[in-house]
């Protein structure tokens, strides 16, 4: 977590403006030029319009769609054009849709695709307009640590007082850590609360260097995954998050200020190590507890990473590698990263609805496993932020398949992130949190 904390600290001076470099947003023309006659049919003008079409605009019946970059999209004889030029290898397209800040299309066979805005790529998805609701009962969540001085019973009491039904805690295969989390799991099982266990294995080996091969990383991930799941499977734990911010390590991201919307934002040489340890943790958990649900964690706007892992791609664009398939998409959404439902692709450019994108792309529930304002914010600012974010998350929970949103953190030892210190609530953020949870049922 240290690197992400440094990342936040470096960006908060920009007053929430996420100034990125080398992450182009929408609006560039694709290399695959069409013939002069096709251009004439495709677009009445190549000049960019000023105002975007309303979200949900479909073509047909619309004659064209304008995206938030001002690009004009048209559909002629089943082929899609942007500003008069073809976009990738499309054909037999029956519908083009502007929704959630992205362009989608559906072919005559009924398969939806979303435009990745990377060299005209179209990635398979479901219809993003379909509302999906997760199983209710664990929506309000909280983060904590295995080495708190609080007893498990005290943590249960604190969470119930805040109307929280889920709690996330990290652990390795170290016996001291595992024993502490086992005790938590026992208390949570008795109280009917959900314990989400983060398996905290990274891409580095015992000596601090990046592991030497994908197979070595897989074996390490498998070992820790199976050890943790074997220790906890008898105590009601069913959700394991396999790795913490692995796409945001020195070894895995090219530059911490990149948005993550392109696969090329990530380190191609070390990508197999990250992929291997993720696959290993998932397989290790499943070997011990076949019915368990495994999540993979991302940050900022890292759909470039999530798509590449899901599709078995490398950051250099090559494919055919092992895929990483998770049961739950998990994301960190701190204030400096941007609004989850309108997150920027280049910091200054137009945003997109990341939760809608993930719902349609991966078809699994979504958990925000960490969220908060920056550490420098006042308590009154944090309280307002809590109220605003909870309202946004809550309103989207049954349409965007959001299973849980987990505030970071129960106690940080100071007033930078924690909602209490040494068992005493920090009144403004605590009251904002409990006021909302007590008046909005988790159902």
UniProtKB/TrEMBL annotation:
InterPro entries: GH, TAT_signal. Signal peptide: none annotated. This is Glycoside hydrolase family 5 domain-containing protein.
